[in-house]
UniProtKB/TrEMBL annotation, chain A:
Annotated GO biological process: amino acid transport
Name assigned to this protein: Branched-chain amino acid ABC transporter permease
Gene Ontology MF term list: transmembrane transporter activity
This protein's UniProt keywords: Amino-acid transport, Cell membrane, Membrane, Transmembrane, Transmembrane helix, Transport
Membrane topology: Multi-pass membrane protein
Organism domain of life: Bacteria
The keyword Secreted is assigned to this record: no
Membrane spanning residue stretches: 64-82, 94-112, 145-162, 194-216, 228-253, 265-282
UniProtKB/TrEMBL annotation, chain B:
Superkingdom, natural source: Bacteria
Protein name: Urea ABC transporter permease subunit UrtC
Membrane topology: Multi-pass membrane protein
Taxonomic lineage from the root: Bacteria, Bacillati, Actinomycetota, Actinomycetes, Micrococcales
Keywords on record: Cell membrane, Membrane, Transmembrane, Transmembrane helix
The UniProt record lists the keyword Glycosyltransferase: no
Automatic annotation (TrEMBL), chain C:
Record InterPro entries: AAA+_ATPase (IPR003593), ABC_AA/LPS_Transport (IPR051120), ABC_transporter-like_ATP-bd (IPR003439), ABC_transptr_urea_ATP-bd_UrtD (IPR017781), BCA_ABC_TP_C (IPR032823), P-loop_NTPase (IPR027417)
Membrane-spanning intervals of the chain: none
GO terms for MF: ATP binding; ATP hydrolysis activity
Pfam family, one: BCA_ABC_TP_C
Lineage: Bacteria, Bacillati, Actinomycetota, Actinomycetes, Micrococcales
Transport listed as a keyword: yes
Stretches assigned to the ABC transporter domain: 39-275
Protein name per Swiss-Prot or TrEMBL: ABC transporter ATP-binding protein
Gene3D superfamilies, per the entry: P-loop containing nucleotide triphosphate hydrolases
Organism: Cellulomonas persica
Listed GO CC annotations: plasma membrane
Keyword Nuclease: no
Amino acid sequence: MDALVSQLFAGLSLGSVLLLAALGLALTFGQMGVINMAHGEFMMAGAYTAFVVQKVVADAGVSLLVSLVIGFLVGGLLGLLLEVTLISRMYHRPLDTLLVTFGVALVLQQLARDVFGAPNVDVRAPAWLSGAVQVLGVGVPRTRLFILALAVLAVVAMALALKLTPLGRRIRATVANRDLAETAGISTRATDRLTFFLGSGVAGVAGVALTLLGSIGPTLGTAYIVDAFLVVVVGGIGQLKGAVIAAFGLGLLQAGIEYSSTASIAKVLVFVIIVAFLQVRPQGLVAVRTRSLA
Amino acid sequence: MSALWSNERARLLVGIGAAGLLLFVVAPNVLSDFRLNLLAKFICLAMVAVGIGLAWGRGGMLTLGQGVFFGLGGYLMAMHLKLADAGPDGVPDFMLLYGDGTVPAWWEPMRSPVVTILAILLLPAGLAALLGLAVFKRRVRGAYFAILSQALAAAFVILLIGQQKVTGGTNGLNGFRSFFGFSLADPVNKEMLYYIAAGTLLVMVLTVRLIMRSRYGELLVAVRDQENRVRFLGYDPALVKVLAYTVAALFAAIGGALFAPVVGIISPADVGVVPSIAFLVGVAIGGRATLLGPVIGSLAVSWAETSLSERFPSFWTYFLGGLFILVVAFLPDGLATVGRLRLGRRSSSDEPAGPDTSDEPAPADDEHDEATATAGRTA
Amino acid sequence: MTTHPATPAPDEGAQVQLDPQALEAVIAAPGERFRHDYLEVRGLRVEFDGFVAVDGVDLTVTQGDLRFLIGPNGAGKTTIVDAITGLARCSGSVQFGRVELVGKPAHQIVRAGVGRTFQTASVFDELSVLQNLDIAAGSRRGLPTLLRRRRSVPEEVEQALETIGLTALADSPAGVLAHGQKQWLEIGMLLVQDAHLLLLDEPVAGMSHAEREQTGLLLQRIGEQRTVVVVEHDMEFLRTFASSVTVLHQGRVLSEGTVAQVQADPKVVEVYLGRGAGARGSATEVE
């Protein structure tokens, strides 16, 4: 029983990290079709933001909260810069965005290496996040619970923003029919920029959250980017709901298989399961059917 | 028609002759043993690029997981070399170090050179065919396919590192002493390896040339540009793509199989997510849809990496990243097309814009010339 | 209704490029092609996420018939073509030459002798006109043939080139063709792929008057030996060339018969009343 609960929490925790990493992608890849390989590096930038903020703000608790805000801005601005300079020229060739942003990722990684050094660095977690809480007889680290809460909060905030705010309506209109949205007086250019800002900002937040789980380095992003993309693919294009289910589903699956074998076997099995799953639902969990030939 | 044919044939012969002269006469005489071995390594990497040019440039499949097939080829070969070094019934050194000193059952077949070569030719290609059927039949394509292929590379590396006892873990497999009975310490045998690699690359390029000019090659481009239209002409696009993908996997596997003895090591660092994307750099820079672009691009990038990264490691990464960004964003057809930009502009401005132009009969001759020029460019 | 532009005769002659004589060689060569195939659609229903686009449509089109499908935007014309060709999932029954098509993958429906064109001419822009036709002609080729070069132009491709008047442009990339020429190329591709049921989605959209005339005559010739269904908005084109018409409205068959019968049908008049169906022709359908 204890083992089961502990695996369950391991899965939920992994799922929440995946969700944070994938949430921004659900916007930029899911809604806009841009494959941003630098998304992981935006997370890395968020993580280093936390590292820098802590140098300035001594109190670990305050610095974490400040970092979440600044990390969002840093990630968002990097995304905005990328959108304006490169991505905006390439909406008609989505596959090429993957390669261009991979180049950007290389440059950002090297930049981090040159500025902060190649070895990993640590960010102190605040005292109120140290230790564990007893849940159903199992000790769960407070940091993990914090990240879970943060992920849920981010999803809710984004869902509400998409549903209720004028920006959200504009994003949904642009995704549904770009030409029509433009005729209806929506500046799709501005919408694209804002979407990218938002999506990349969430990556920054995810990066700050990751500092709670361990030390950080220039290649932090590469560890998460592949899994994050898989979450969006399994979840289905353009659907937050799908991304949430996929993130926790994959997290639980990974933790579940790990329990009965090893982490590396689990990884391979999860991949096989995903390919098998796409046989059944090639459009992902939550699919919107359309009439178009393409 | 016959004049064109003989002309084309002449061009082909001249091309083969020039490449043969460069690879088999000039390079071995000009380069030191060390440099020649380095060139052999570049050639192995270029084999992967040739396959990517076919699958991605002609077939539109952005495969980010070629490292898997490269790695399978490399590890299969390495397993044989380790077992051969250990002697009959011997145990490879690293297994004594990390494991319990027994050879796992699935290693045993690789003691046979014949089985090893067959496995290198069949296993990775078979895996690609299976995977290709699974995803292409279900119309998983574009970005989805790219991400899946990348995930495959990630899973493969994690498996390699996790199973240290049987794969050597992060260190990979290394320290081969002989290659099918020839000592690798002898420079003459190293040179032989170079000749094998160069000859193989030449055969691969000629194979791709054949494919590109066949009816299948035309069909592949059609599938790349309008997959659904091809479906409504009675073809199954999945099968068309699977074939190109399988050929690409086969080339990558052979490249890996030669890479292991040439370099003396195959490790997860050669086959993971990042090296898998790095294979694409040369292809993108050289011109993804051209015949020679991928090869030349790949060789050039390898050469630049070796000469630059030794002296300025950090500069090299910026340079590589920047090159990637510039070429893909601004020269999507690669550097091979730079010289033809002017022509390209002219022909695209001549393109009839809409139904209006159809009312005036076009000067047929002019149009024809222009068109052949364009066709020649894409071929 | 469009008015005839007063085009001087010589000019007209210069534009006309189609060669219906060559058609005979493409579609009528082997005797076994004279099959008595007909399209039989029963209870066809297509649903998109709760929206019923086609609702219980019955349709019978026999060989030698040139059937036009008309109706206001959203009537389900293109959706019916999509359903028959396997692009849209549907329920009901579609039989051609007694072969059930519903549930088959698209490429096998094509191999059962069903060919179609698309609203926006879809040809392979980077390939030459000849290559386009050669690919269309080759879905039954085996791998050994595919892996060889094309040494000569297949007979049917040569004839099709003449039929659609593109012989001189055979080696040009299809991307440089004018709009009308692309649509002819599509018709040519249908001919060489040996389709016995031809479904054409707005084949004359954007064509000049003379080009329409030519296309219509060509379709009539094809219709004598094949089963042809045309989705079209152009009322004048329809009046000139249709041998029978099916009027669709909100996913159902509203009326069916000859042009005169349909025009006299009060239900049709009601649906089209004051709408100026001809004028609507220029409005593009929902993609």
